[in-house]
Amino acid sequence: MFTGIIAEQGHVLSVERDGDSATVRLHAPGTTEGLALGGSIAVNGVCLTATEIAGKEFSVDVMGETLVRSTIGELAPGDSVNLERCVQAGGRLDGHVVQGHVDGVGELLEREPLGNWERLRFGVPANLARYIAEKGSIAIDGVSLTVTAVSDAAEVNPWFEVGLIPTTLAETGLGTKTTGSRVNLEVDVLAKYTERLLAFNTPATAAAEGGAR
């Protein structure tokens, strides 16, 4: 589990494709400190496992499902990525509960400087829009943010907005995203579980559960 508080921006050294999978090697001095093989790291919000560690570098293997559902497959040598180690039990949860299970990819539609902060508007896949609520939480490329505005439920091309403070602009990759940039999105896990539970709250499922007792 993660919190959406980025610890470091790492840099992609290489991407080796092998059929429908890939191995990504990254340079990240802070992240590799104390990192053990098998450790979990969120790379642009995607939970991946350290498969090799050498000094200030580490590698992760990426399967086909992850390449399809996220922007990891678009990475190239020289790219910067947001990195976060998994949270330790008993540690502070400074952001919100982030699983590192990306739900889909969004697109930066607008960014507007407003004094020392910026407003960003992202397009979101229609199947994810219902999980995004004003004042709710969302992870964008692994960054925990508060939603400041959302489109109407009837909007054909749904969107949402967030505000970025100077620290977020400087310490994460969101500060350099340009219009058209694609980002990984993870919606609030509580919203997904709530919807799933309600789907079973029907006479048919109640009858089926009763018959199984």
UniProtKB/TrEMBL annotation:
Pathway stated in the Swiss-Prot or TrEMBL entry: Cofactor biosynthesis; riboflavin biosynthesis; riboflavin from 2-hydroxy-3-oxobutyl phosphate and 5-amino-6-(D-ribitylamino)uracil: step 2/2
Classification via CDD domains: Riboflavin_synthase_like
Listed transmembrane segments: none
GO BP, sorted A to Z: riboflavin biosynthetic process
Residues in Lumazine-binding repeats: 1-96, 97-198
PROSITE patterns found in the cross-reference section: LUMAZINE_BIND
Keywords: Repeat, Riboflavin biosynthesis, Transferase
Domain of life: Bacteria
Reaction(s) catalysed by this chain's protein: 2 6,7-dimethyl-8-(1-D-ribityl)lumazine + H(+) = 5-amino-6-(D-ribitylamino)uracil + riboflavin
A single GO molecular function term of this UniProt record: riboflavin synthase activity
Domain Lumazine-binding: 1-96, 97-198
Pfam families: Lum_binding
Annotated EC: 2.5.1.9
Described purpose of this protein according to its UniProt entry: Catalyzes the dismutation of two molecules of 6,7-dimethyl-8-ribityllumazine, resulting in the formation of riboflavin and 5-amino-6-(D-ribitylamino)uracil.
Record's subunit section: Homotrimer.
Name of the molecule in the record: Riboflavin synthase
Species, as recorded: Pseudarthrobacter phenanthrenivorans (Arthrobacter phenanthrenivorans)
